[in-house]
Amino acid sequence: MQIEHPQQVDYAALTAQIRAWAHELGFQAVGISDTDLSAAENGLLEWLTLGMHGEMDYMANHGTKRSRPAELVPGTLRVISLRMDYAPPAARDSRQVLAEGDRAFISRYALGRDYHKVLRNRLAKLADKIRGAVAEFDGRVFTDSAPVMEVELASKAGLGWRGKHTLLLSRERGSWFFLGEIYVNLPLPPDVPQQEHCGTCTRCIDVCPTRAIVAPYRVDARRCISYLTIELKGSIPVELRPLIGNRIYGCDDCQLVCPWNGFAQTTLEPDFAVRHGLDDVSLVELFAWDEAEFKFRLAGSAIYRIGFEQWLRNIAIALGNAPKSAEIVAALQARVEHPSELVREHVVWALAQQFRTND
């Protein structure tokens, strides 16, 4: 039934209905927060001032809209935050792949369908259901797609707390999940934030291959492997290349060592199942793909967004870090005259690594 007068809306009942709809749509948890992010705004501005966002200019381009939801979407009173598990149930163990230097490690969130597409579709369906119940509803959906402080909002909404690696942590689900948001103009009753439960643990800080977690709750993106392999479009700093190992798209190390991920659940979402054997594939095999095969196999994947040139750049670094072999040298030499200067530079570096004698 559609409700025509806002003063007649039972917002507690509507909230319960929203939670039920969300679970029907495949979300594992729902929380509601107000829009006051003033406690986090100074930290964001300081991080930007220090340049820790690297070349992610979009992080600074929107001013305070990121920390003030009502400036981004006028009329916003509440934010509905939602959580969806993504750990694929049949993926090869990450530690085993990382230990085999001639295999390609891809962050586990990217092994299936692009989460932007999956979550945006489900969030839009949820928004439609709310609109069908309340005529006055107005809102906008987000999933890592606009200036939104999703971890801060999810934390305020009681879905978990910010870990020292800056990701959201849940006592029940660890951190292997995606977040999405709906900004709404309805005064829904907000949830109560959770307490933090990281204690004195520093495993995520200690394990980071490039020391990108420069302090608890602060990541210098310029050193983060996820940034280097995904966001950075140009040349990867030479001093960081050996530290990347065989990680060709993203990095999960800080999540792999987190004790709370002992409680994580594998996903129930078929779209996040492993595609094309990307959980356990050789670097040489991926490096042999031409651009047409890259586009065909990775269509609908988050990896598709980085493009073929960046894909080859990343794999070249991993091949340079891999155990020395004639097969790897041959694969690199086949790309040494690639049309892209970016690819050629990293191939030449990788060949030098392969021919380097042990000190």
TrEMBL record:
The active site is at D144. It holds the Pfam family Fer4_16. Keywords: 4Fe-4S, Cobalamin, Cobalt, Cytoplasm, Iron, Iron-sulfur, Metal-binding, Oxidoreductase, Queuosine biosynthesis, tRNA processing. [4Fe-4S] cluster 2 binds at C208, C224, C251, C254. [4Fe-4S] cluster 1 binds at C198, C201, C204, C258. TRNA binds at K233. It is found in: Cytoplasm. It catalyses: epoxyqueuosine(34) in tRNA + AH2 = queuosine(34) in tRNA + A + H2O. Residues 188-218 form the 4Fe-4S ferredoxin-type domain. Cob(II)alamin binds at R66, D144, L168, L179, S226, C251, D252. Its cofactor is cob(II)alamin; [4Fe-4S] cluster. One of its GO terms (molecular function) is metal ion binding. Pathway: tRNA modification; tRNA-queuosine biosynthesis. It is an enzyme of class 1 (oxidoreductase). PROSITE patterns: 4FE4S_FER_1 (PS00198), 4FE4S_FER_2 (PS51379). SUPFAM superfamilies: 4Fe-4S ferredoxins (SSF54862). GO terms for cellular component: cytoplasm. Binds 2 [4Fe-4S] clusters per monomer. It comes from the Bacteria. Transmembrane segments: none annotated. GO terms for biological process: tRNA queuosine(34) biosynthetic process. Catalyzes the conversion of epoxyqueuosine (oQ) to queuosine (Q), which is a hypermodified base found in the wobble positions of tRNA(Asp), tRNA(Asn), tRNA(His) and tRNA(Tyr). Belongs to the QueG family. Monomer. This is Epoxyqueuosine reductase. It comes from Ferrigenium kumadai.
